[in-house]
């Protein structure tokens, strides 16, 4: 084996807590089972006591099995002594008993190494959770005081908007909250694609749609599709700003209107009091909003709906979304006159004073 290859292999072992010397001892024990510590010491060209220390370490890592002292109960590996009855005897105890030295055995690497890696993976998972939780909060808090300018990043142009949005959704761990309205910098179809990818990973989405956004061609259909995937969608006549909040720690907020095109800009806000405030804005809008509705996802009972037709259910859903007459007629392919007649009939059946209230009342009654 070349020195370069040997160095790379040694680095692999060190990643799971095995030193270069311990690796050599383990290999010697694998190649010469039953030889015992003294023979292995000669094989690696080191002293017996140092090899015994390495065997202690390897036993603790689950790579070597040491004989147990007779008559003692089971104990933790590598910690033999009067205070731990039943622990395996350390290699140093074997010098007076050559027969028992021969009982020291390297464990099958296909089992031992896999178990060793699994234990380290569990430790890495715990460290990752610590890094993304407590340590990240400490870092953000310190950065807020020492370098407050780093809490904000300016994003310029539609392409960079799309890149950042996709990255935010890919990094989301549990929830994304969105205030959605037109005009759009990122194509709504792309937005839905990024959202679908995140939802397949188990990330939940809550979105408040403004009427203006749902009147954009295909946007209502996209919103319904996201609802069928598990998004919680609500609607308001208008929202005060476009907003994305990811996991209560990062927010994306426009700085300029999308009409600026390539020059449209937004700010990415990292965890701070500002992200908390933006989250509170979303929650206020969410409490005020009405359910979006998912017409076509199920057929309400005749008792509950008073024998609503499919078209009437669709009209109520679009009313709850706040769409204008022209937008609804385009969706349904009917005339404005027919639409207004049916809206009047539905308002009377619901006891509603207005078209938007008719949609809201229908949603509350479970009609849509």
Describe the model:
The chain contains 16 helices and ten strands. The chain is α+β, with helices and mostly antiparallel strands and 368 residues long. The strands form two sheets. An eight-stranded mixed sheet has the order 3-9-8-7-4-5-6-10, sandwiched between helices. A two-stranded antiparallel sheet has the order 1-2. Helix 13 crosses helix 16. The longest helix is centred in the middle third of the chain and has 38 residues, at 109-146. It is elongated and about 100 Å long.
Give the uncertain stretches in residue-range form: 71-99, 294-305
Q: Order of strands in the sheet with the most strands?
A: 3-9-8-7-4-5-6-10
H/E series: HHHHEHEHEHEHEHHEEEEHEHHHHH
Round the mean pLDDT to the nearest integer and report it.
79
Main sheet characteristics: 8 strands, mixed
Structural class: alpha+beta
End-to-end separation in angstroms reads: 71 Å
Give the arrangement of secondary structure elements.
Elements: H1 3-14, H2 20-31, H3 37-44, H4 48-60, E1 64-65, H5 98-101, E2 105-106, H6 109-146, E3 152-156, H7 158-171, E4 175-180, H8 188-200, E5 204-210, H9 211-214, H10 219-229, E6 232-236, E7 243-246, E8 250-254, E9 265-269, H11 273-288, E10 290-291, H12 302-305, H13 310-320, H14 325-332, H15 336-350, H16 355-364
Parallel strand pairs: 4-5, 5-6
Antiparallel strand pairs: 1-2, 3-9, 4-7, 6-10, 7-8, 8-9
């Amino acid at each position: 084996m070349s020195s370069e290859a040997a160095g790379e292999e040694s680095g692999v072992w060190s990643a799971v807590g095995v030193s270069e010397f311990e690796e050599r001892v383990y290999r010697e024990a694998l190649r010469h089972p039953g030889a015992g510590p003294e023979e292995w010491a000669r094989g690696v060209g080191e002293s017996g006591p140092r090899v015994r220390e390495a065997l202690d370490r390897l036993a603790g890592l689950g790579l070597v099995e040491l004989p147990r002292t007779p008559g003692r109960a089971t104990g933790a590996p590598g910690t033999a002594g009067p205070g731990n009855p039943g622990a395996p005897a350390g290699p140093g105890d074997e010098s007076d008993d050559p027969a028992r030295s021969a009982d020291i055995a390297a464990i099958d690497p296909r089992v031992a190494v896999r178990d060793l890696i699994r234990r380290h993976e569990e430790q890495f998972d715990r460290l990752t959770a610590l890094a993304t939780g407590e340590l990240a909060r400490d870092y953000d808090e310190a950065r807020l005081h020492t370098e407050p300018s780093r809490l904000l990043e300016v994003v310029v142009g539609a392409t960079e908007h799309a890149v950042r949005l996709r990255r935010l959704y890919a990094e989301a761990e549990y929830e994304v909250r969105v205030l959605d309205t037109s005009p759009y910098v990122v194509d709504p179809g792309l937005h839905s694609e990024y959202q679908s990818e995140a939802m397949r990973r188990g990330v939940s989405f809550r979105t408040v749609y403004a009427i203006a956004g749902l009147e954009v061609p295909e946007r209502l259909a996209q919103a319904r599709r996201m609802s069928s995937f598990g998004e919680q969608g609500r609607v308001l006549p208008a929202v005060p700003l476009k907003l994305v909040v990811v996991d209560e720690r990062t927010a994306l907020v426009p700085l300029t209107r999308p009409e600026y095109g390539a020059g449209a800009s937004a700010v990415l806000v990292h965890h701070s009091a500002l992200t908390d405030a933006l989250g509170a804005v979303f929650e206020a809008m969410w409490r005020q909003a009405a359910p979006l509705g998912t017409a076509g996802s199920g057929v309400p009972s005749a008792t509950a709906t008073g024998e609503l037709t499919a078209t009437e259910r669709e009209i109520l859903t679009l009313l709850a979304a706040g769409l204008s007459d022209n937008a609804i007629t385009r969706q349904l392919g009917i005339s404005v006159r027919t639409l207004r007649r049916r809206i009047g009939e539905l308002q009377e059946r619901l006891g509603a004073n207005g078209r938007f209230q008719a949609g809201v009342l229908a949603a509350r009654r479970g009609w849509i």
